[in-house]
Each structure stands twice: as C-alpha cells, then as structure tokens.
Specification:
Strand order of the largest sheet: 1-3-2
Mean pLDDT: 73
Low-confidence stretches: 28-58, 66-94, 175-179, 328-337
Distance between the termini: 109 Å
Helix content: 55-70%
Shape: globular
Structural class: mainly alpha
Length: 337
C-alpha cells in the first residue's frame, strides 16, 4: 500500500479510537451519575409518592417527605401498611393507575436530575424510552407531574428550546420577588433541602431535635457522613452553611446531659418566608391543601395575622408622615408672597 494511503488509514483509525474513548468516558460518566442519582433520589420525597416499604416515623415527618398525612395516627399507619401491600402486589392488578403514573414520573425526575448534572440535552424521545412505550398515551400526564415536582422541590423549570423542537433545558427559576433579592438558598440545589427542613421544624413544634432531622433526611436518602450528589456533605451544609447564612439555628438543648442539639428557623428564614408558605409547600408535596393540616393551618394563619399587625404600625407611621408633609407643602404653596 502506498505510504500516503497508509498515513491516511492510520490517521482515520486514530480518530476512530479517540472518538470511541471519548464516547466511552462520557457513557461512564453518565452511568456513574445515573447510579448516584438513583441511590440518592429513590426516596418518598423525591419521587413525590408513598414509600415502597413501611416507614415507622412520626406522621408529621412523613408529611414533609411527601407521604399523605392522615388526621390520626391510626389512619396514617393504615396508609403506610397499604403502601407496603401495594408495593408487594403485582403492579398490573393492585396498583392504581395514578400510582403507576407517579412512579413513572419519579423515574423521569431521576433521569432529568442525571442529565442536568452531566449537562446532557433533554429530548422527548429519550423521556419516552424511560417511561416505556406502553405509557406513551399517558406521557403528557407523567411529564406534567415530573415538571411540577422539579419546580416545587428544586426550583428548576423545564423549558422547550424551540417551539415543537421536543428538546428541553432545565433552568433555575428566578425568585418570587422578581428583583433577584433572594439568596441562592432559595434556588437549586439548596432549595431542595431548605424548604423540607423548615417544614420538619415547623411540624415538630417550631424546633426539631437533631435526631428527628436526621431521621427525616435518611428518608430522603441523605445520610450523615455520606456525600450527596446534589447537596455535598450534608452535615456541613445544615450545621455550618445554612447556620452561617442564618437560615437555620443549631443549638444545644438547655440543660441536656449528655448534650443534645436541636434545629430552629434562623432569622433570615423568618424574614424571607412564612409558615404559610412552608405549609403550602408541604400541601403541594402531598397533593392537598393547607387546610388539610388543621392545627398547623391555624398556626400559620395566626403567624400571618401577627406579621400583618407588625407591618401596620409602620405603614401607618409612613402614611401619617407623608400626609403631614403633603399638608405642609400645600400650606407653603398657598402662602401669599
């Protein structure tokens, strides 16, 4: 073979090897991310449904985790046992249609988080493969559930790249104020852990022991000493970063021996959100309304009223001052020269 052709053949083979290695590296990265996401996200809260195995935790904690909170512990226990039975039974016979769609949506959420982490494009054809072709007619509902979950929990919005392109990007939503004044704690990924933590504290009487907090985080697949694919080292995040940023207060329980610690809302959390907002978050996670949690709803209403009363004197003072200035200006304008 002439030298020129050999050189071209060698260059072509080298190019093919490089492409294969690059693709292999990317596939390995994606597979690793998928495994990490699956292990970290296969929890009640992140799949927006009931647990597939019995969870013996307080009903209040299950509520934050996205498990329907009944009005009595007996009903709550019955709900968990029902969840266990449905998970052990054949999906085609005992699992309701909505349960199946919710589980498919949870699979889609895990895939979306994986793609977001490795910065891969999100295409409708790939999403259809995840939920399986037999659910193609239910895809709009599955897609809606997954989108709502990504928005509610992580503050991520699925946006189509171009109309009818069937290709999407995950983008961080701006804060509610519209002026960018809220900190990154209310955006991805920290929002995904901050709001649930505030909910746990609220539902445990506005203070939650360290044991109760970790019990809840374990349900979410977040463990002390084990790095999480989105939140990093969880203990450092909740006892240092969120404390330093004044979203959480982490303190020793008075007169506890041996020392025990508890979490409370920090001053920034109290200033930047309300009990009603947190309760609305919990309600959406449980596909219900705030009034479904009567005692907490009443407490949230009282909190709203107290905040309104605290603001009223300030507004009244401002209005009075403005009125006085206006009258003085009027007198000056009407004074004869």
């Amino acid at each position: 073979m002439p030298r020129g052709q050999k050189s071209k053949l060698h260059a072509h083979e080298k190019c093919c090897r490089n492409k294969a290695q690059a693709q292999g590296h990317k596939d390995a990265q994606t597979a690793a991310a998928q495994e990490e996401v699956a292990s970290s996200s296969s929890s009640p809260f992140y799949v927006d449904g009931v647990p597939s195995s019995p969870v013996t935790v307080p009903a209040t904690t299950r509520a934050v985790a996205g498990v329907p909170c009944q009005r009595s512990d007996v009903n709550a226990t019955s709900q968990v046992q029902k969840s266990k039975n449905s998970s052990e039974a054949s999906p085609s016979t005992d699992m309701s249609g909505q349960d199946l769609l919710t589980r498919k949506a949870s699979m889609l959420v895990r895939s979306l988080l994986c793609k977001y982490k490795v910065n891969e494009p999100i295409k409708k054809i790939d999403m259809l493969k995840i939920v399986h072709k037999r659910y193609k007619e239910h895809f709009p509902e599955i897609f809606r559930k997954a989108s709502e979950h990504m928005d509610l929990v992580f503050g991520l919005e699925l946006k189509e790249v171009q109309p009818n392109s069937h290709s999407y990007n995950l983008v961080c939503k701006s804060d509610d104020t519209g002026d960018g004044s809220l900190s990154s704690a209310w955006r991805f990924p920290i929002k995904g852990i901050l709001m649930p933590l505030l909910g746990v504290i609220f539902l445990h009487g506005n203070r939650a022991s360290e044991e109760e907090v970790w019990q809840f985080l374990n349900i979410l697949g977040i463990y002390d000493g084990k790095r999480h694919f989105m939140f990093g080292e969880p203990r450092k995040l909740i006892t240092q970063y969120l404390v330093k940023e004044k979203y959480l207060e982490y303190r020793q329980v008075p007169n506890s021996d041996p020392p025990r610690f508890e979490f409370l809302w920090g001053p920034r959390a109290q200033a930047e959100t309300t009990k009603m907002r947190v309760l609305e978050f919990l309600s959406k996670a449980n596909d219900t309304v705030p009034s479904a949690f009567p005692s907490y709803y009443e407490e949230a209403l009282r909190d709203e009223e107290e905040r309104a009363r605290a603001i009223s004197p300030t507004k009244a003072g401002t209005t009075s001052k403005a009125s006085t200035c206006s009258k003085a200006t009027s007198r000056l304008n009407s004074h004869p020269e």
